[in-house]
Specification:
Blueprint (H helix, E strand, L loop, with lengths): L2 E5 L10 H9 L3 E3 L16 H14 L5 E7 L1 H12 L3 E9 L14 H14 L13
């Protein structure tokens, strides 16, 4: 039996994985699909990358999960990489599923096409939020 923790991408929440969780559990494994802080309906969206990461760490630790297969989709690739830095002893395998994998010194913004960079820049300007998150997510 394996234990899977499936982490969703941006604009989703843990419920996006429900069909996958059902399939995994039907095969005799355990599967969990936490929601990253700041995601989902009716929650405070004013979170930074560290808080997003900490929410997944807290979820894993609070359930005392060990020997897990940690899967991250899209934006969650940046999350699971940081989770692994913090609690590597609990993780058997990392899976980056169509996910962002940042190199040292790179930001999320560095890894999206120019047209998306422009769109994200416009959204940040319109929001008046200068701590936009997508340029400040850097790995070192």
């Amino acid at each position: 039996m394996s234990i899977f923790v499936l982490v969703h991408g941006s604009w989703h929440d843990g419920s996006a994985w429900q069909a996958v969780v059902n399939h995994i559990e039907a095969k005799g494994h355990l599967a969990f699909a936490p929601t990253i802080a700041g995601h989902g309906k009716g929650v405070d969206k004013n979170v930074n990358h560290a808080q997003c990461t900490q929410s997944i760490i807290d979820y894993i630790v609070s359930k005392d999960l060990t020997d897990i297969v940690l899967l991250g989709h899209s934006f969650a690739g940046t999350i699971i990489a940081k989770v692994a830095e913090a609690i590597l002893d609990r993780i058997r395998r990392l899976i980056f599923f169509d996910a962002f994998v940042l190199n040292d010194g790179e930001s999320f913004r560095d890894n999206v096409p120019p047209h998306l960079q422009t769109l994200l820049d416009e959204l940040v300007r319109e929001s008046n939020d200068q701590d936009d998150g997508y340029t400040s997510i850097r790995f070192s």
